[in-house]
Amino acid sequence: MPETVLTNSALEEMVDTSDEWIQERTGVKERRIADDKDSTSSLGLRAARKALARANVSPRDLDLIIVSTSTPQFLFPSTANLIQDRLGASRAGAFDLLAACTGFIYGLSLAASQIEAGAIQTALVIGAETLSRVVNWQDRSSCILFGDGAGAFVVQGKDEPGGIRCSVLHSDGSGADYLFARSGLRESWKGDFPPNGLEMQGREVFRFASRVMVQATEEVLEMSSLTLDDVDLIVPHQANLRIIQAAARGLKVPVDRFYINVEKYGNTSTASIPLAIVDAVDSGTLKSNSRIVLVGFGAGLTWGASLIEWEAMPTPGAALQDFLRESWYLLARMRSLFLRFRRLLESLLFQNGKRRNP
Ligand code: ACO
Question: Do residues 109 and 304 make contact, with C-beta atoms less than 8 angstroms apart?
Fold first, then answer.
């Protein structure tokens, strides 16, 4: 998480709102905002390094890096490319995935399918956002919801069944105008509003979300021939407490079957599910050998769910491994600088010698 905390009281100074209204209508108390030194890739990199340390996996073993984000640092190269370089994960393919707040479920599903197909062995799936940079801070109906952050999972193949069992993924582009952020590419923007500013029809998104959270959860359970009684914890996209409460009513389960931490971070889009899982693990709510449903929705419109058997708690590596890992990242930085320098040298040589590319 970025360090800067933006509380509801601080928002009262920015727009016509109140702490009471925000808490009652959304459940959010505060959110984190990326500083100037932060970016989607720096937040994603931090999450990636922590995930690799927890899982005790070396960046060298990564075959694939997927960064799910709606706020990439550049249109291209992908944020995943930047993170791959900083990790020194030289064997890994890397790309960004955009499915808004459902992106992390899309990313996990993709990584699991690649492993199941035998194409790869180890993947890193990152959800990272700097939504504060596309939020319209004059629009009280949307700016109160969002925050920045990143979370990551290491996904690795094993011989025994378990892990990511199945996923359902959905899209309905006819709802694109419910929630969108302009890319700034298609038209020149003349108004005050930032060219890539976020626009949202909150009530419509609310209705859609409450419906599809139930639908996707039921679908993924049916696919795995399970019922809600077989599930220990539901980890929903943390968009709004009232949406989660509505989903609980729709599924006819008490709301405490859902893990909720929206009060701490607001809606961090595709980062919200991994961040909720980390909190659930650290607080002891998510235990070894638990069966969990991840369920999300977002712009697109997109929605989906995954059923996961969370077998064992990751054990952090020893101090020596931490030291070796840190040294590896330093070497990765030097490797990157060396590659840049070699490229520069090559281009100078080709220019001066007027040699043509082969
Ligand atoms: N402070 C005070 N009053 C406000 C605020 C605010 N921040 N925002 C709106 N209001 C007012 C409205 O102007 C309206 O006033 P009026 O009755 O005089 O017209 C009143 O509060 C009620 O407005 P509603 O829009 O009906 O409020 P609602 O209860 O629907 O809550 C909210 C709005 C929080 C945006 C809700 O609709 C919501 O959470 N929707 C889902 C949004 C969402 O989850 N988006 C993310 C999707 S994921 C992704 O892809 C990024």
Answer: yes
Domain range for 323: 318-358
Say if residue 354 is in the same domain as residue 266.
no
Ligand 1 centre distance from Cα of residue 11 (Å) = 15
Query: Is 190 domain-assigned?
Result: no
Active site residue 101: yes
CA distance 206 to 172: 15
What is the total count of domains within the chain? 2
Annotated active-site residue 136? The verdict is no
- If asked whether residues 175 and 323 sit together in one domain, one would say no
pLDDT at 193: 57
- Centre of ligand 1 from the C-alpha of residue 290, in Å: 35
Q: Confirm whether 267 is a catalytic residue.
A: yes
Instruction: Please give the average pLDDT of every successive group of 10 residues along the chain, which has 358 residues.
Output: 96 95 97 94 97 93 98 94 97 97 98 97 98 91 96 94 94 93 62 70 94 98 96 97 97 97 97 97 92 96 97 73 91 95 89 59
**Is the CB of residue 342 less than 8 Å from the CB of residue 329?**
no
Cα–ligand 1 centroid distance for 25 (angstroms): 7
Catalytic residue among 81, 136, 143, 237: 237
C-beta of residue 290 within 8 angstroms of C-beta of residue 277: no
Query: What does the pLDDT read at residue 78?
Result: 97
**Which of 25, 129, 263 maximizes ligand 1 atoms within 8 Å of its Cβ, making it the mutation to test the pocket?**
25
Q: What is the pTM of this model?
A: 0.93
Residues 121 and 23 reside in one and the same domain? yes
Residues 121 and 115: beta-carbon distance below 8 Å: yes
Q: Are residues 252 and 284 in the same domain?
A: yes
